[in-house]
Design a protein that fits this description.
This protein has helices spanning 2-9, 15-33, 50-57, 62-82, 87-90, 121-130, 166-179, 201-208, 231-238, and strands at 93-96, 114-118, 135-138, 152-157, 180-190, 213-215, 226-228, 243-252, 258-264. The strands form 2 sheets. The chain has a 7-stranded mixed β-sheet with strand order 3-2-1-4-5-9-8, with helices on both faces. Strands 6-7 form a two-stranded antiparallel ribbon. With 267 residues, the chain is α/β, with parallel strands linked by helices. Bound molecules: S-adenosylmethionine.
Length: 267
């Protein structure tokens, strides 16, 4: 339905208006679905308001926010552990595209320097107030970030490179390289083969030929812009300049089925 509505509006330049209208409709529906779900997180940190939960997860359900955040952070730790990367030793760490703190809040007892950044100032404002153990910043849709060269030992981006066109992806990957120290790691999640059945015929042909499929690049930065990465596109383009440590099909848990890639900046 979302794809159909967007396809009808795009040629008339109405996509941003439509994103707003349809977004509000979906928000209303998500709020109704979440009625009665008011679980406390149990970590002593506050719950983001429904509007922000929806912006990031397309749901207003705190249960989903907590459970998927736990699954995402566990799958990240498991991946790092398998490759002998200790998250505490890797610090400072950065959550790029941190949203409303679904994953970063899991590091509140780690006792290391943690940063989050996002293009959406409302999300960053909430994180800054609600998650005071970490430092937050707003970034532009395009690089740069305000951090110095080689600051981080670990950067992760869950469900962020799933929402930007390839030129923007290339620019951000260079920026990720710049802010990582030599030997530092980057973890990126992407939509992969699991979505083949959702692609239309030209998209499927392009995907199977190894190209990244981009939908609605005009609204990059919002969840309406969606990308699908074949493994070949990750290995040949996204990972350029990095060593590929691991690529795990459907390995990013806590997101609607995503692949995960672990990269290392060469020493
Ligand atoms: C689907 S949400 C995922 C949020 C969070 N990573 C999580 O897993 O809960 C995508 C996030 O990427 C952010 N984003 C999109 N483009 C960005 C960019 N160019 N720079 C920083 N953040 C971006 C959005 O604002 C949004 O918070």
């Amino acid at each position: 339905m979302r794809a159909l509505v967007a396809r009808l509006a795009e040629p008339f330049g109405l996509l941003p208006l439509l994103v707003w209208l349809y977004g509000n409709l979906l928000y209303g529906r998500a709020r109704l679905r979440a009625v009665g779900s008011d679980r406390e997180p149990g970590d002593g940190l506050p719950v983001p308001p429904p509007r922000l939960l929806f912006l990031v997860t397309n749901e207003c359900d705190p249960d989903w926010y907590f459970e998927s955040g736990a699954a995402a952070s566990s799958s990240l730790l498991e991946l790092l552990r398998r490759h002998d990367v200790d998250i505490a030793v890797a610090a400072p760490i950065l959550d790029f595209g941190c949203g409303c703190g679904r994953v970063i809040r899991r590091w509140h007892e780690l006792g290391v320097e943690v940063h989050g950044t996002d293009v959406n100032p409302k999300l960053v404002e909430w994180c800054s107030k609600g998650l005071p153990f970490a430092r937050f910043a707003v970034n532009g849709l395009e690089p740069p970030l305000a951090y110095e060269d080689g600051k981080f030992g670990l950067v992760y981006a869950f469900s962020v490179f799933t929402h930007m066109p390839v030129e923007l992806e290339a620019a951000w990957m260079k920026e990720m390289w710049r802010i990582l120290r030599p030997g530092g790691h980057l973890v990126v999640s992407t939509h992969g083969e699991a979505y083949l059945h959702r692609l239309n015929e030209p998209e499927r042909v392009s995907f199977l030929a190894g190209h990244t499929v981009v939908r609605r690049g005009a609204v990059a930065g919002s969840n309406w812009c969606t990308t699908f990465h074949p493994e070949q596109a990750i290995r040949q383009r996204l990972a350029r300049g990095f060593e590929i440590v691991d690529f795990v099909r459907e390995g990013a848990k806590g997101n609607p089925v995503q692949d995960v890639t672990l990269l290392r900046k060469p020493v």
